Amino acid sequence: MNLATQTVHNIVSQYNNKGPDALDGPGKGGRYKAYLSLQEEAEFLEPFQEQALTGKIATAMEIKAKLEGRLGHSVHKTTVYRMLKRHGWRKIVPRTVHVQSDAKQQEDFKKNSRTL
Asked: Tell me, what DSSP letter sits at residue 19?
């Protein structure tokens, strides 16, 4: 590790003044600019999860609008996406076509069905 001479002097001085605790430092990481705590986020998302269990699709833009209403200011859409990822939500989109559908059978049905 390459350190400047002054940095070494500062570390030795801090160690002499505060003991071994001076070497721990403030730590790294964390959510310093979080709008809501993890618990508050979970409580905020709970109604959307209950609606999703009954079949209603919760969109990120709908969640964003509610979050902005709660916070009183606008937030970027990535804020919502990160919050959803933190709480284990994943993007599920309804399929436009059934898995077992057969395009040829559908065309035959259209050709041979009677129109009213």
From this structure: G
- Residues with Cβ < 8 Å from 71, sequence gap 6 or more? 35
User: Per-residue pLDDT tens for 42-78?
Assistant: 999 999 999 888 888 888 999 999 999 999 999 999 9
116/113 Cα distance (integer angstroms): 10
CA distance 47 to 42: 10
The counts of H helices and E strands in the chain are 5, 0
**Which distant-in-sequence residues (6+ apart) come within 8 Å of 35 by Cβ?**
67, 71, 75, 79
d(CA 67, CA 75): 8
Measured CA angle at 57 (ends 54, 58), to 5 deg: 110
Overall pTM > 0.70: no
| Residue 68 tokens, joined | 């902005």
CB 86 within 8 A of CB 37: no
**What is the distance between the terminal CA atoms of the chain, rounded to a whole angstrom?**
84
